Amino acid sequence: MKPGLALSFGYDDGSLRALADIKGEPEILLRDIYSLPDIDLNEFSVLFVSMHGDQRFLAARAGQIEEYLVRGGIVVANGHHAYPYLPRMAGFHTIDNYRLSDITVLRLAEHPIWHGIDPHDLTFRRGVSGFYGRVWHDAPPDALVVHALGRPNLPLDFIYPVGRGHVLFHGGNDLWTFGGEDKQLAPRIMQWVTEGRNVQ
Amino acid sequence: MSLAILDGGTFYHHAAIHGRRYRELFDKTIYAPELTTDALAGVTFLIVPDRINPNVLRANRDVLIRFAKAGHTLVVFGENRADTWLPGVTWTARPTNFWWWLDKNVRPPNRLLAPDHELFQAVPFESTVWHFHGVLTPPAGARALIDVPADPEGRDSGGALLYEDRVTLPGRLLVSTLDPFYHHGSNFMPAATKLLDGFLPWARRKTVPQTDPGR
Q: Does A128 touch chain B (CB under 8 A)?
């Protein structure tokens, strides 16, 4: 199985390091984001884009990312989509002066990555809301919307096809920082990637 | 005389720098990977926001130092590993306590050391208080403006969260561990927005000396 690739951003980030330290197959390699032009993405099973990634740079590499997807790659992208680096994505929508009801995580579809994780535990971290998501994005019409923000028509987590590949988009803080100690999302994402490859 | 800011290209840099709230304050926005000495022509006050890729800053180390050597003001926020490219900076990581404010009985450890400093006429000290990602040891001759005492768990002996250094280079360096651009641009922490509400107009005023003889 091809390794996964996570794009790093120059300073140490504990959660990104933890992602790369996940035990099991395939392993996840860290490379600085600006080395992307020198990387053959087809050598990787999945590309992780952190919320701390330079999207202006990624937008200049949009062709490389789309080509990777079309050939069957998987991109797990986090943050607010501020520059057009992902195919079929539009911009994001902020919610001014949001209240708890505006940023409550709503589950619209079951998905193995989030199986058994109560949306309440995504809405709150130690009683504080907002870590998981504070803005919403327009999802492509054929996307599987797993979570919405506050109202069912405001997508937060969704998966959509590009050619033979898929984008898993999370419009908030990096997915691999969530899920609690016994339900970490990162290994589940890797399992999903692995199973996706098996299906193919 | 102009105010410039580096743009790291993340969504939160985009929101903070190009968003309506502050964009009119900057004379020049420089995409960090495109930083050159020529790009800084006419600039007297440069802001390096938090969370610019340190590999880019290290690659442009000479440009940034030359800028400060010319007698200008360089402000550097946190999570930039300034200790790896800016002279005089010593930084010690401290595991972040994001939760200090949940216990109403706990007072934050942050201490204002220089209430007379002009910056605090623009930025209320309260707007600088949130979690922090490490502490700075100011070089000899520099002035700590905000600090915290030693880590209660003994991992460091305390240090500055913001200091001013007018001695290491001919210019003025303001160095901080705080990361307001990330938090404001993520639409997630009101204190960060309040800090920028005070700091950025102050920076703007510093580039118009005839209306502010206080420097």
A: yes
